[in-house]
Amino acid sequence: MPDDPYTHVLDRDGVPAEASQLKQQLNLIEQVINYGTQLMPRAWDSSQKGISDSIIIFHLFRKVITHLDSIHILLSQGAVAGAMSELRAMLEASVLVDWLLKEDTEQRAHFMFVAAFRRKKAVADSFIPGSATHQQLVDDLGSAGLAEHVAGAQVKSAAIDKMGQHPVFGAIYQLFDQAATAKGKEPVWTDVYEAHRRIAAGNPPKSMKSLPKVQIRDIFDQVGRLRDYRRIYGHLSEEGHGSALMSSLEIDGGTRFQVPNIRDWTKFPQVFRFSVAFALRTYRSILDRYRPGEARDNFPRKYKAEWQQVFMTPVEITKKPTFKKV
């Protein structure tokens, strides 16, 4: 017969009542999502419809909305801990939107574009005997059934290789070639971009095999969001990587452990506030770039009339956290 959850670990019964108490906040997230989906085609219509625009609008901006939608679903079910991983991914996408828009937008987008195609080529190459990564694929998955994919992989790899002769992407592609390892490991695209930037400034790296490293902290800093990195991103990373031990255990007097329920609503206010704030910031960045008139007039007016009151109202969690002592 089907198992029931051990309610000390997973209590689903309290979800509807608490979600009802937080209806205004959940509705606000839904409205912000809806606005973002409407903004996407408006931004595209106002753009030059180039590669950089497609990457910013249909990839990074879409990711911000996608993660916010996931957060809404998870929060609605009391899965606040799961929503924190989505919040981290949303913050990364939001920061990359700002970074691409800040300066050198076309080149940064082109490096990201080339890197994406080279990753597809790396997957295709792994099916081709004699390539740098084929043996690793065989070691991981075995050789059964691989032969039937070789011809298609060769066609795909050769097609992507033609990017090396492209008038716009050829030089970038060749930089990636120079930076890739003999074992077929692809370099990080932001590192290759930084090498390009230094070459253009007359200060090239000593070797393309030893690239300057661009850390995620650097990107936060360059767009003026270092506080988000220090105060929010680091904590979300600990949660996502499983190192935030005290979110799963509390020590009771040094002798016993207390394990919180999986559906713990305690951090709902923080996830709600940060997710909406990151979305609104990204919307403003997109509007400033593609629809500056709307950024000046309609957007702030909509925020004040429809969103501000709920967003700024302190959130109270009526359901207190429960613990199982072990």
Shape: globular
**Number of separate helices:** 14
* Share of β-strand residues: under 5%
Major sheet summary line: 3 strands, antiparallel
For the terminal residues, how far apart are their CA atoms? 28 Å
Helix content: 55-70%
Count of distinct strands: 3
Rg, rounded, reads 24 Å
Structural class: mainly alpha
| Low-confidence sequence ranges | none
Mean pLDDT: 91
Q: Secondary-structure element sequence? A: HHHHHHHHHHHEEHHHE
Number of domains: 2
Strand order of the largest sheet: 1-2-3
Kindly describe this structure.
The chain has 326 residues and is mainly alpha-helical. The protein has helices spanning 15-21, 23-45, 51-76, 80-102, 105-125, 134-141, 150-161, 170-179, 189-200, 216-222, 226-241, 268-290, 292-296, 298-312, and strands at 250-252, 256-260, 323-325. The protein has 2 domains: 15-102 and 217-325; 106-212, no CATH class. Strands 1-2-3 form a 3-stranded antiparallel sheet, with no helix packed on it. Helix 3 runs antiparallel to helix 4 (80-102), helix 4 (80-102) packs across helix 5 and helix 5 (105-125) crosses helix 9 (189-200). The chain is globular, with a radius of gyration of 24 Å. The protein starts with 14 loop residues before the first helix and ends with a strand. The mean pLDDT is 91.
